[in-house]
Each structure stands twice: as structure tokens, then as C-alpha cells.
Amino acid sequence: MTKSKSKTELLDELILFLGKLANLRDPYISDHATHVRDLSVRLAVRVNFPSRKIKALSHAALLHDIGKLVLPEQIINKPSRLTEAEYLMVQQHTVLGYKLISPLEMDAMIGGAILSHHENFDGSGYPHGLGGEAIPLEARIVRITDFYDALICQRPYREAFTAGAALDLLLKNRHCFDPALLEDFLHIQAEERRLSREIRRRPMTTKTSSQILCEMP
Ligand SMILES: [Fe+2]
Predict the structure, then answer these.
(1) Residue 112 alpha carbon to ligand 1 centre in Å
(2) How far does the centroid of ligand 1 lie from the alpha carbon of residue 205, in Å?
(3) In the predicted model, what is the mean pLDDT of the chain?
(4) Distance from the CA of 51 to the center of ligand 1, in angstroms?
(5) How far is the CA of 13 from the centre of ligand 1 (A)?
(6) Where are the domains of the chain?
(7) Which residue in 166, 163, 171 sits closest to 196, CA to CA?
(8) Of 12, 106, 115, 103, whose CA–CA distance to 64 is shortest?
(9) Domain 7-215, CATH among 1.10.3210.10, 3.40.50.300, 3.40.50.970, 3.30.70.2740
(10) CA 188 / ligand 1 centre spacing (Å)
(11) Cα 196 to averaged position of ligand 1 atoms, centre (Å)
(12) Which residues contact 42 (CB under 8 A, 6 or more apart)?
């Protein structure tokens, strides 16, 4: 008799399945979701987010745009500017995602982050115009990482921004973000750029794994 799967295993499989579904619909959504998950986990670790909640945060970040799966494709991938009515429809992806996830008995944090990941720190976001710490921390994290990654990814209607240009835009739109989290995110990005410059400058002093394999008898 096969062992029945635990709730955690089933949840992991479900999330994997939803990711595959998103990829079939639009590979951008799937790649972007993975980037947002990775960036969110790194930011969360830096700000000492409770470690027991990191897995739920990573699921929330991965599923943040899941509501877009039920929006018409011609709107999601429209190569020109959205009309006002279309923009209002796109905004519904937060509520739709929340409703999709709610019956699945996931950690409440996941639904909350999906619902609130477009709320702005100054209260100008959607769907509820929440502001400051009334926005769940995990949604404030995803607000930053989602904004940044959306800019550095290429879309059918525009080229990707460079990392530097995306960071400038983040700063120009700082009213959207939790200032303390934004500072930490900028630190992570600065550190990453410093490390990649260092790696490019470093002379090759150690052998690569393929060199080692070639020299073996
Ligand atoms: Fe979104």
C-alpha cells in the first residue's frame, strides 16, 4: 500500500502545478514569479523575517500574480497601452488570486500577500488603499521585489530596463514602498553588483571543474 502524502507535500505539489499552469499560459508570469520568490526570500532573510514563515512567504511570492491566470490573455499581453476599463480589470487579479487560493487552506499569509501586493505604503495602491503597516509585511516585501523584477524583465511591448535604471525608478516611486524595506533591498542589490564586479575583475587563479576533469587520467 502506498503511503498517503502529507498536507505539506500536497501543498508543494499544488504550487508546482499552479506554476506549470502559469508557464503554459504565459512563460513571463512563471519566470517572473520565480525571480520574485528568490528576491523576496533574500530580502526577508535580511530583515529577520520569522524563519518558520519563510516557506509560506516563498509560496506567496511565487503565487502573487496567480489571479492573472483567469484574466483574458489579450489584456495581459496587450502590446499597447491599456484602456481605463482594461486597467481596472487587471487590478482585479489581486482579488481573483485571493479567491482562487482561499479554499485551499494554505497559510493565511499567502492569501493576504496575494491580495495586498499592489497596496502602496502611502495608501495610493489597490485593491483597498491600505497604507503603512496596515499592509502585511509579506505584501510589502513582494511590492518591492515584484516592481523591480517586472522592470528588468523584457515584455512583448517593451525592452527590459537595466538594473541601474530599475533601481532609479524604484527610488522615484519610493512612496509605494516601505522605506526600511526599500533601504534593505537597495543594500542587497548594491552588494550583488559589487560582488559581480569583483568576480569579473578577479584573475583566474583556481581551476574550473571542467579543467580538473580534463587533467584526470
Ligand atoms: Fe501583481
Answers:
(1) 13
(2) 44
(3) 87
(4) 25
(5) 23
(6) 7-215
(7) 163
(8) 115
(9) 1.10.3210.10
(10) 22
(11) 29
(12) 188
Cα of 93 from ligand 1 centre, angstroms: 7
Task: Please tell me what DSSP assigns to residue 71.
Answer: S
Ligand 1 centroid vs 45 CA: distance in angstroms? 22
CA distance 77 to 71: 10
Packing angle, helices 137-152 and 108-116, rounded to 10: 50
Q: How many residues does the chain have?
A: 217
Ligand 1 mean position, distance from CA 114 (Å): 8
Q: Which three cell numbers stand for residue 76?
A: 495581459
Query: Residue 212 — pLDDT band, cuts 50, 70, 90?
Result: very low
pLDDT tens digit string along 109-124? Answer: 999 999 999 999 999 9
Q: What is the mean pLDDT of residues 49-75?
A: 91
User: What pTM did the predictor assign?
Assistant: 0.86
Q: What is the pLDDT of residues 158-169, one digit of tens each?
A: 889 999 999 999
- The CB density around residue 121, as the number of other CB atoms within 10 Å, is 23
User: Cα-atom radius of gyration of the chain, to the nearest Å?
Assistant: 20
The DSSP secondary structure of 108-173, one letter per residue, reads HHHHHHHHHTT--TTS--SSS---GGGS-HHHHHHHHHHHHHHHHS-BTTBPPPPHHHHHHHHHHT
